[in-house]
Amino acid sequence: MAASVAAETASPAAAPERRTVPLTGLRGAIARNMGQGWQVPRVAHSVDVDLTRVEALRAERAAAGDKLSVNAFVLHAVAQALRAHPRLNALMREKEVELVDDINIGVAVALDDGLMVPVIRQADTKPVAALAAETRQLAEGARAGALTGGAYQRGTFTVTNLGSTPVDRFSPIINPPQVAILGVGRTRQQAVVKDGAIVAAPVVNLTLVFDHRAVDGYPAALFLGEIARRLEQAEFD
User: 2-oxoacid dehydrogenase acyltransferase catalytic domain: from which residue to which, for each copy (predicted)?
Assistant: First the structure.
């Protein structure tokens, strides 16, 4: 009886503390920007790319003391492809698509509390090593909060890379007012056919997401195909 009375009079267990992430500051800006990007009538094209020649070139450069990431080669291929396919290097305006002469590629950088996209300006004029060095500098500056606001402005295209994660492929959200973004998955060993034989090769998936109001599927496919060709043939000026 006493045990029953004690159970009835005991205080109820305290409710667990409610934890939230306020949509203010950086997180709020990301939420607004991604909300705008999600409204875009977007289409995704995807291709697997054989990086055998890129990896051989990376090893050769590493032996000479020059450490280059896969992303630097991707950035170079993208920049050159944008020069040949200017409809992808563009900004969506209210009643028009603005084609931009300068090729300014935003590089997504993950922070502890969000995502920032500093910009490599005139990326098509820079060799792979310069792109690699500038990407490292921008990433370090973004993570340290040392970049000025101008470092994040005037982007015309974005590359976002999840190569350091287990993700093979993904479809990123366009960074408005840009009309396209490229998602880069991890490099993995995969069976491919070469000269009639099945061999293992380093393969990466590239997914291009584009605004169908600005670009149709066929020219977007040609653009993605040129990026793939440049990487597979190690075509780097």
Answer: 17-235
* Digit-coded pLDDT (tens) for 57-102: 999 999 998 899 999 999 999 999 999 999 999 999 989 999 999 9
Amino acid code (one letter) for 126: K
Q: What is the CATH number of the domain that holds 107?
A: 3.30.559.10
Please give the structure tokens belonging to residue 146: 């040392």
Question: What is the model's pLDDT at position 132?
Answer: 96
Distance CA 181, CA 176 (A): 10
Does the residue 70 lie in any domain?
yes
- Per the prediction, the chain carries an average pLDDT of 91
Distance, in Å, from the CA atom of 197 to the CA atom of 234, rounded to the nearest integer, reads 22
Residue 11 banded pLDDT, cuts 50, 70, 90:
low
Active site residues: 212
Residue 187 host element (H or E): none
Number of domain units in the chain: 1
Can you say how many angstroms the Cα of residue 201 is from the centroid of all Cα atoms in its chain?
23
Is-contact 227 76, C-beta < 8 A? no
